[in-house]
Every structure is written in structure tokens, then in C-alpha cells.
Fold 6-phospho-beta-glucosidase.
Amino acid sequence: MKQIKSDFLWGGATAANQLEGAYATDGKGLSIADVMPGGKHRMNVIHDPQFDFELKEEYTYPNHDGIDFYHHYKEDIALFAEMGFKTYRMSIAWSRIFPNGDETEPNEAGLQFYDNVFDELLKNGIEPLVTISHYELPLHLAKEYGGWRDRRLVTFFERYSRVLFERYQGKVKYWLTFNEINGAQFMPMLSLGMAMREDENMLQSTYQGLHHQFVASSLATKAAREIDPSMQIGCMLIAAPVYAYSSNPVDVQFALEAERMMNYFCGDVHVRGAYPAFADRFFAENGIELVFEDGDLDLLRDYTVDFFSLSYYMSRTEKAEKDGDEAGGNIMSGVKNPYLKASDWGWEIDPDGLRIILNKLYDRYQIPLFIVENGLGAYDEVEPDGAIHDSYRIAYLEGHLKAMMEAIQDGVEMMGYTSWGCIDLVSASTGEYSKRYGFIYVDKHDDGSGTLARSRKDSFYWYKEVIATNGAALKQTSVSK
């Protein structure tokens, strides 16, 4: 039986805009995340064509404070080290480095902050895994350029990436270019910094913006290999198997087409270096005519990624004719799967789906896979003695890790696993503190109250044992302190 390899990268994952706080400190500019309100209405607000990127008194903006990682990073990294993290996936806030995004000279205070974070991680034996762009496009680029609609953002991103590679070579080995790049198809504001206009072809703008990101990712990969060939560059996609609701061939074909665009469209460009053939029909049927510049296709072909990283939260079930049975909580649409339960936020829970999608991706791409997001957003209750008994989180993660181990037995090559929101932070989908993912509880609440004190949940000790035994403890269900 295959074992998890000894250099497997166990750890946790976060994003700058969800935990750093200090949103206007040390020269940082505003990002699109800084003008996205908190609350369950968040997605409706930011995807309204009337969204104007302005702060408004009627809304709250929890990510302005986050959990103040900016001033607590040493304390938090010490807790990660106590759990035994081998790696920590984090992102860099583009607007800390280039406050507007289009400057030619970076902000030294922002660069120094991340130097400090990387030094602290390395001192604790934790390998940084860094996302260059994670849902936090500089606000100026969204307002003045229209986000990734504008080809000029390719140049700005390449400049930003080169600054990072040159500054942090020797400190950061593993990089991801764009977080959940295929999410642009569902969440163009988060991924592309684009508020959709009433008079535009949304699909045309979305896929043109994606093309610009593909080119920017290839240019970043080229820069990394020129600056330090030992760096490894990965893509990052939302991964979800798409099931046919029935064995009706019409449903099977519908699910196949959904899965291709969901999981393989962006993956093929990043890994295979070319647009997939099935995209041609999709573009033609949806009136999409992409604009290419000379050399674009050569760049995509010549600078593909070294590994494929993914987030996995749910599967998706589809049928051709929907009749009011949509899975409301799933951000990727689909219909309710009668065989699955759902989280407090309506996201369907499907550990077996992780094994399925890992096998599908590895069969197609044959490069190492890395699960860089997976976790359960849930309400946590603090007991009178301060304990947090999150057995539901342990059960969720255990089920998914066992599925990952089954995929390894199937022959899938896995680099590592970083649980999402390893420390409580602000949810990207709802802008709430109450949707908690972490092994570490942070005393901060949706009304803005809280001391920011950190404390260990039961899952903290469970995950510590999983890492210490390189996964062998997964057969145990008890929590030991």
C-alpha cells in the first residue's frame, strides 16, 4: 500500500484580504476587497451592475480589521508551528506592494512586512506557499481600467510578479499565480475586479479577462524561471466533480459540458499550454470572440505550470431541465443532490467527490496535485471554560483527508494539503466572522466586538496529531490533548 510521502506538505491556508487587517497602514492602497461589504447579501451587492466600488455608511467592512494578522503574525505563526505545519499558504496584498497597481516603483514598507513574515515562517521551519493575486485587485485598477478587461493589467501584473520573485528568491520556493482562476466564470468581481455593466456581453468580458490572466500567468512563470529556476509555479482552480442527476443521456451530456468548463478549461491552458478544442464551440455558441496579440499562444505553450493546486469544498450535480431544485448554498449552482448533507451555509458535503476529482485531474494532467483549500465553515460555540468542541469540523476534515489518501492509493501524486482558514478569518463569500473555518479561534465577531484573543479548538490538537503521524492518526476519531 502506498504511504503519504515523507516530504508531504501539511499546513493551512489564508488570504491577505481576509485576515491581515491594517487595510490602510504603511502605504497600503485600497483593494477591491476593501470596498466589499460584510453580510450574507455581499455577493448580490458586488455583482449588481450598479456596484460603484465606493465605501458606504450603510455597510460594514470586516476585512478592514480582519484578525489583525498584520500585528499578530508572530503569535499566529507560533501556533502554526505548534501544530507542526510544514507549509503555510498565504497571499500577498498587491496594493501593499503597488498601492494603485500601476506604479513603477514598489512600496518598501509593504515589501518589508512580507520579508518579516517569511523570516518568521522559515525560523519556525515552515515553507511559504504564496499566492500572488487572491481576490484583492488594487481598487485603482478596477475603477480606472475596468479590471482585467484591460490588457494593460498584464504589464502591471508582470511587473508586480518580478518584484516579488527578485525580492523573495531564496525565501519562497512555491508560488501560485491567480487564486481560483476559473472562479471568474461564477464570480467575475472577485476574480477579475469587474463590475458587470448592463449593456455588455458578460461572457465576452469574462473570457477576455481570463485570457489576459492566462497571458499574465505565463509571463510570471517566465519571469520566475529567469530569476530563480528552483522556484515552482502552480495554477490554482476551484475543483468540483460534476455529476449527472440521472442516467438520462441528456443529463449526462449537460453534466459533461459543465465539468469541462468548470474543471478543464482553465486547467488545459495552464497545464497543456493551449485552449481546449471544446472551448471553440462554447465560444461560438455564446458570441465570444477573443482578442489575441501576437505571441500570446506561444507564451501559453512555452510557460506552463509545474503543479496543479486546487480548492475543494463541494461537488456539483446538474440536469438539463431544472425545476426549482437548485442547491442554493453552492456558489457554483447545480441542483440538490439527494445523497448529500449540507453545511450551515448550505454547501453540500461530499468527501468522496474529492477522491473522484483528484483522479480525474491526475488522469488528465499527470503532474503533481496540491490541495490548497478545503474546510468547513461553521458556527462555533465557546464553552464557559473556553473550550471549543468542534467535532463536526474534525469529522468533515477527516472524511476529506481519508478520501485524499484513497486517491493516493489510486496512484495520484499529491504534494500536500493546506486546510482553508487554519485560523478564523473573514469569509470571502459572506464577509462574516461567524462563518468560522479555523483550528484556532479568534475572538472577533460580526458586530465588530471582540478582543482578538487566540485560542485552540479541539480540531487544533486533532490536526497536530494528523501531521505528527503523517496521516496515520486518521483512523482515530478521538481528540487527544
User: Anything to note?
Assistant: The chain is about 40% helix and 15% strand. The chain has one domain: 9-475. The longest strand covers residues 127-133.
